[in-house]
Specification:
Layout (H helix, E strand, L loop, with lengths): L23 E6 L14 H8 L6 E2 L4 E2 L5 E6 L7 H17 L3 E6 L5 H11 L4 E5 L19 H9 L4 E6 L4 H9 L3 E4 L3 H7 L7 E7 L21 H12 L4 E8 L10 H17 L2
Parallel strand pairs: 1-4, 1-5, 5-10, 6-7, 6-9, 7-8, 9-10
Antiparallel strand pairs: 2-3
Family: Belongs to the arginase family. Agmatinase subfamily.
EC number: 3.5.3.11
Enzyme class: hydrolase
C-alpha cells in the first residue's frame, strides 16, 4: 500500500494532505461479502465521506475544531469482491503497516467482520489491549450456517484471541442464548440494552490501558439509523451514543484505534444514517485523538 499521495476521490472533511504529518489515518473497508440479511454496507465509507461536507468543523460538545487534529483520509482498501479470507488478510497487512508507521487507525465499514483483522493487528502492537464494543448484536457466534468467516463472529474471534475478560460489549439486545451463556461462563462483560451508564462504570477500570473501540451503527434504534443491514428495534438514541463517545473522550483510557461499521446507505434515502455516522466520526476524532 502507498500512503504518500492523498486519496483522489472524496475525502472526509478537513482531511490533512500529508500522511507523514498526520497522527491518524482514516480509511474505508468496503466489504459486505458475508452478511446474512441485507448487503450494501460496502458503500458506507464512500457515502460517509460525501455527506461529511455538510458537517460543521467545530464541535460544540468538545470545543475543538477538526483542524486541531491531523488525520489523513487514505481512501478505501481495494478489497477483492466476494473473497472474505483474502480481504481479511489484506486488511491486517494494511493495519500492520499503519501501526509500523506510528499511526492510529480509524476505520469505516463495511460489515462488522472487517473489525476482526484490525483488532488482531492492534493487539499485536498492544499486548494489554481491551475492546469496547457497541452493537445491537453479540457477534459471538463461532460460525453462521457453517461459515466461520461471518459478520456474526468478529467479537468471538477477538475474545478468544485476547481473552474474553478483556472485551466489553454495550447496547446488546440480540443474539443466541448460547452466545450470552458463553460470555457469562468465560468472564466477558455484556451490558444489555444500554450503553452510557454501564460504560461510565467500566471506564475507570480501563484507565491507562490501550483500548480499541468498535461501533456498529445498529446499536442505534432504527428510528435514528435505518440505513443498516440488520435493523433491530429497541436501540439507543443518537444523543446517547454521542454522550458515550464523549464519556470515553473524558476518561483516562488510551484509544489506540477505532471503527464505525455497518452503514448501508441504500436503505435510507433520507441519508439520516450516513449523516449521523459522519458526525459520530467527527466526535471520535476530536474526542479520542489528543
Amino acid at each position: 500500500m502507498r500512503f504518500d499521495e492523498a486519496y483522489s476521490g472524496n475525502v472526509f472533511i478537513k482531511s490533512h494532505p500529508s500522511y507523514e504529518e498526520s497522527s491518524v489515518v482514516l480509511y474505508g473497508m468496503p466489504m459486505d461479502w458475508t452478511v446474512s440479511y441485507r448487503p450494501g454496507s460496502r458503500f458506507g465509507p464512500a457515502r460517509i465521506r460525501e455527506v461529511s461536507i455538510g458537517l460543521e468543523e467545530y464541535s460544540a460538545y468538545l470545543d475543538r475544531e477538526l483542524e486541531e487534529v491531523k488525520y489523513f483520509d487514505a481512501g478505501d482498501i481495494p478489497l477483492p469482491f466476494g473473497n472474505p479470507q483474502r480481504s481479511i488478510d489484506m486488511i491486517e497487512d494494511y493495519i500492520d503497516q499503519l501501526l509500523a508507521d506510528g499511526k492510529i487507525p480509524f476505520g469505516m465499514g463495511g460489515e462488522h467482520l472487517v473489525s476482526w483483522p484490525v483488532m488482531k493487528a492492534v493487539a499485536k502492537k498492544n499486548p494489554d489491549l481491551a475492546i469496547i464494543h457497541m452493537d445491537a448484536h453479540t457477534d459471538l457466534r463461532e460460525e453462521y450456517e457453517g461459515e466461520p468467516l461471518s459478520h456474526s463472529t468478529p467479537i468471538r474471534k477477538i475474545a478468544e484471541h485476547i481473552g474474553p475478560e478483556n472485551v466489553y460489549s454495550f447496547g446488546i439486545r440480540s443474539g443466541m442464548k448460547e452466545e450470552f451463556q458463553w460470555a457469562k461462563e468465560n468472564g466477558m462483560h455484556i451490558s444489555k440494552f444500554e450503553v452510557l451508564e454501564p460504560l461510565k462504570e467500566i471506564l475507570p477500570k480501563l484507565e491507562g490501558r490501550p483500548v480499541y473501540v468498535t461501533i456498529d451503527i445498529d446499536v442505534l434504534d432504527p428510528a435514528h439509523a435505518p440505513g443498516t443491514g440488520t435493523v433491530d428495534c429497541g436501540g439507543i438514541t443518537s444523543k446517547e451514543l454521542l454522550a458515550s463517545i464523549h464519556a470515553i473522550a473524558h476518561s483516562g483510557v488510551n484509544v489506540v484505534g477505532a471503527d464505525l461499521v455497518e452503514v448501508a446507505p441504500i436503505y435510507d434515502p433520507s441519508e439520516q444514517t450516513a449523516n449521523t455516522a459522519s458526525k459520530l466520526i467527527r466526535e471520535m476524532l476530536l474526542g479520542w485523538v489528543k
